[in-house]
Design goal:
By secondary structure, the chain is an alpha/beta fold. It has an 8-stranded parallel β-barrel, surrounded by 7 helices. Helix 2 packs parallel to helix 3, helix 5 runs parallel beside helix 6 and helix 6 crosses helix 7. The termini are close together.
Length: 300
């Protein structure tokens, strides 16, 4: 199992620092959310050129506001800029965001993702697509000479989206999804769909808040406050409920070095291929967390 960083970059300057430090520390990958700050792909193109050999992924770009042809052109350009190290993570986002903030319909998200991938994947691989779907259409060729196609992963959580993802692309990126759910739902559903489609075994990238500390109760209280929003969004709430967690604080990896190490090794045993660590806590706790993560590289 690889170990990567799930980071939140505030601006281009911090992206340069974060990418360079993560690469120097030996992390296998860095995962950049697309939220309400800087555009993730632009950050990666500008700040990611000097971070080889580390992969840099988006985790994740909402699909509704970007037509797959536009995203394919942008992703190919960025991947060319950083030497083929981009992983394109995409997802439907959440109904409160798509409808409540952007005024777009969140109707039929599974069909939307399926048709999106049916357009996006051939555009990335062959730079052409001809699809006339129920919700998306693309009949076009693009030209980004010499640009390698990035791997594509979807923030698939529920069973139907996991099946679509396993059948059509390279893997999934999970967040707020516990080890039992990964073992019993995520991994077997993805693997079966990929096998039936004749695709390689999918990657399972799993993001977790993590804090190595002796002040366990205080860290869990901090996690409850810092990650509270994720307990309210329906798709994440469903994953927490499936695991039997009251909230994000129960999912966070919190404790001393031995306890956190055991939990990370357990994630490898249930099928996670990349552990994407999202460190939180005081500066000393973050330093201690990063030290542990570096010590585990190559041992999971």
């Amino acid at each position: 199992m690889e170990i990567g960083v799930f980071g939140f970059v505030a601006d281009l300057a911090s992206a340069r620092r974060e990418f360079a430090q993560a690469a120097a520390d030996g992390f296998a990958s860095y995962w950049v959310p697309q939220a309400f700050g800087p555009d993730s792909l632009t950050c990666i193109a500008v700040a990611g050129q000097d971070s080889a050999p580390m992969r840099i992924g988006t985790a994740v770009i909402p699909t509704y506001p970007r037509h797959p042809q536009m995203l394919a052109q942008q992703a190919l350009t960025v991947n060319d800029a950083i030497g083929g190290r981009l992983v394109l993570g995409i997802g439907p986002s959440h109904k409160p965001v798509i409808e409540g903030q952007w005024g777009m319909s969140f109707d039929k998200p599974i069909r939307h993702l399926r048709e999106y991938l049916e357009i996006l994947m051939p555009l990335l691989a062959e730079q052409r697509a001809s699809v006339e779907g129920e919700v998306l259409t693309c009949k076009a060729e693009i030209s980004v000479p010499g640009a390698p196609a990035p791997k594509v992963m979807v923030s698939a959580l529920g069973p139907q989206l996991l099946k679509v993802t396993g059948r059509l692309c390279d893997g999934t990126i999970t967040w707020m999804t516990g080890p039992n759910t990964i073992r019993d739902l995520t991994v077997p559903t993805m693997r079966q769909a990929a096998e039936e489609a004749g695709r390689p075994a999918p990657e399972i990238v799993s993001g977790f808040p993590i804090c190595v500390t002796d002040a366990v109760d205080a860290a869990r209280e901090r996690a409850a406050r810092s990650f509270a929003i994720y307990g309210k969004l329906p798709s994440y709430r469903a994953m927490l409920d499936r695991e039997g967690y009251d909230g994000p604080a129960d999912l966070a990896l919190v404790g001393g070095e031995d306890e956190v190490t055991e939990r990370i090794h357990h994630l490898a045993s249930v099928g996670v291929t990349t552990f994407a660590a999202s460190p939180f806590g005081a500066r000393e706790e973050r330093a201690r967390t990063n030290e542990l993560l570096r010590s585990l590289m190559g041992t999971t």
